[in-house]
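Q: How would the structure tokens look for this protein?
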Amino acid sequence: MRFFRRNTSAADNDADSETEAGVDEVDQQAPKGATPKKGRPTPRRNQAAPGKRGPVPPPPRNTREAIKRSRQLRKQSPASKMTKEERKAAAKERRERMMAGDERYLLPRDRGPVKAFVRDVVDSRRNLLGLFMPLAIIVFMSLLVPDPAIQQWATLVTTVMLFGMVIEGVSNGRRITRLAREHFPNETIKGRSIGWYAFVRATQLRRLRVPRPRVKPGDPVKVR
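A: Here is the predicted structure in token form.
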């Protein structure tokens, strides 16, 4: 005599239908305004957030371990999956935005309206400090010449130029600090910080300044 068994899938479907019917019956019997039951157990923590498992790793004990851990995190980051061309394109875009003066891509020392105003004031004039780098190259080339007379004249000219640059740097720092305080009365402006920032900006060649100048020599400076 042969016995027939019910299919497992059919039994599961019957169980699901019975469960749904039970939930509907409970919802109908519940009083008005009461919160109905979910009909399913609350998931556990490891089921709700399967990606967060295990204890928090301890802090690195030394520099080597910290570097190793940072490399592992860098490999797991989405940026590590970028191709070489994509990384070059992203770096080029960041460079262009920084040169254009975008606040989001500037270094912390260059951010803020006060620093932008200082850069515009420095870029609106031709300064003697702009010859600092060419003068350094001339001094280095004069040291390679075996003629003592040329070396003496180069040393004398360099000394005079450096003396004039120091005077100009101090006067520009005071002038730019005064202008910054007049245009930004609500900002805390430190004279030494602004003076040094203006001095470093003025000693750089115009085409090498970061971010690139927004005004030309002789243009009026406006607060933006």
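The first helix runs from residue 8 to 29.

The helical segments are 8-29, 45-48, 63-76, 84-99, 113-123, 132-143, 148-183, 191-203.

Upvote if useful.
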